[in-house]
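Structure (tokenized):
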């Protein structure tokens, strides 16, 4: 993600909270191209049982 090489980002949101500070993280610390002025485009939302799957497409500089 930080290198701008991803074509799509899929995020699954479920009803489980993880509060362990040693739990695996989605990303390591980095500088990411998505900021408030460079958002992602929501492609789709799918419900899978009690989970919501969100599909995002990073916008290129030319798409803004």
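Design, position by position:
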């Amino acid at each position: 993600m930080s290198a701008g090489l991803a074509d799509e980002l899929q995020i699954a949101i479920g009803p489980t909270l993880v509060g362990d500070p040693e739990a695996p993280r989605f990303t390591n610390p980095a500088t990411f191209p998505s900021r408030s002025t460079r958002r992602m485009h929501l492609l789709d939302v799918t419900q899978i049982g009690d989970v919501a799957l969100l599909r995002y497409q990073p916008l290129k500089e030319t798409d803004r």
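Reviewer-requested clarification: The chain has a mean pLDDT of 80. The CA atoms of residues 14 and 51 lie 5 Å apart.
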